[in-house]
Write a structure and sequence with these properties.
337 residues, alpha/beta, 6-stranded mixed β-sheet, 9 helices, 22% strand
């Protein structure tokens, strides 16, 4: 087993590992040495500002056979999922890295939600990976064409598959993505059948499956920490409770891909600063009136764009927060003297 079996495609430098789990200040790692644990080297990460690793990251390590190894550096990422951390100023937190596909999962019951699908698609495109939509639990319905029509309305051109982990229906269509060395992130709410799908792909029960409530088709999320699972066929799967409801961060590229039908009208208004509300010559309002643009798509786009924080706004808020701290410190010094 080498680091290349864990999906690495670059040049090897020193002893390398892949992060398989995150437990506060301790990390699960895997590589040519097998599976082990490691901690961050204090100087590099806490003093010199090295990029903190997350699940899926490739790192260089100082390997220690009979104890926790030391993580020395985090290698550049090819894809990344982030979320907004709670706190007085907006902060970006890495959730998963270096994956090839995002399996966006919605089940064919009350869990199906086009609005949530739009959010997940935006996040998937923003990550840099390829989104794939899975409509799970096909055994619950005999007619799923209405669901496919709804998906096509918000995700035109994205590969969509109807599957059932229970009966095996449609599972063979996933083989094109599930190749050795490839990494897949599962993105979906609780009760969507992620654990069942992982077990079906693995051919054994490696994840607990919880029952769902009949009244709303929701379940308890059975993943308790971020983790990367390597299947016997060489495919790696990332599941994490932090992926259930990702707060929007900087998402300009994701919005452009997920809402290409909306953004084609932007920049075509009479006024460059058009707010698309009551201004004359608004291309967006004209497209909605002509039936060329679905008003629900426009409202979804506006909501996600308002929620997302661009980098300039993030820096502005950060500077204001630091200014308020410095002002408070000055007032305290005056009170002391």
């Amino acid at each position: 087993m080498t680091i290349y079996d864990y999906g690495y495609t670059g040049e090897q430098s020193g002893t390398m590992a892949r992060i398989t789990s995150v437990h506060r200040e301790r990390y699960g790692i895997a590589g040519s040495f097998g599976e082990s644990y490691a901690r961050l080297k204090t100087k590099e990460y806490y003093q010199e500002g090295e990029m903190f690793p997350t699940v899926g990251d490739f790192v260089t390590i100082d390997y220690i056979e009979n104890g926790d190894s030391r993580i020395l550096s985090t290698l550049p990422r090819k894809t990344l999922f982030t979320r907004r951390e709670p706190g007085p100023i907006p902060r970006e937190q890495a959730v998963a890295a270096n994956f090839d596909y995002v399996f966006i999962m919605q089940s064919l019951n009350l869990n199906f939600n086009p609005k949530r699908l739009e959010r997940y698609l935006t996040l998937a495109w923003q990550s840099g990976a390829t989104p794939v939509i899975l409509l799970t639990k096909a055994d619950l319905t005999e007619d799923y064409w209405d669901y496919l029509t709804a998906v096509e309305r918000v995700a035109a051109g994205v590969n969509t598959h109807v599957v059932s982990a229970h009966t095996g229906y449609g599972m063979n269509r996933l083989n094109a993505y599930l190749q050795p060395g490839k990494t897949v992130v599962f993105l979906g709410s609780s009760g969507v059948g992620k654990s069942s799908l992982v077990n079906a792909l693995a051919g054994e029960n490696i994840m607990n499956v919880s029952a769902i409530r009949e009244e709303d088709s929701r379940g308890r999320h059975t993943t308790t920490h971020r983790q990367l699972i390597k299947l016997e066929n060489g495919v790696m799967i990332i599941d994490t409770p932090g992926m259930r409801e990702l707060g929007m961060w900087e998402a300009s590229e994701g919005l452009a891909d997920a809402f290409a039908d909306v953004e084609q009208y932007l920049g075509r208004c009479r006024f460059s600063d058009c707010k698309h509300e009551t201004e004359p010559g608004c291309a967006v309002k004209a497209a909605i009136a002509a039936g060329e643009l679905d008003i629900q798509r426009w409202e979804s786009y506006r909501k996600l764009k308002e929620e997302a924080i661009d980098k300039a706004e993030m820096l502005r808020r950060k500077n204001e927060w630091h200014k308020s701290l410095r002002k408070g410190e000055k007032l305290k010094k005056k009170e002391i003297w």
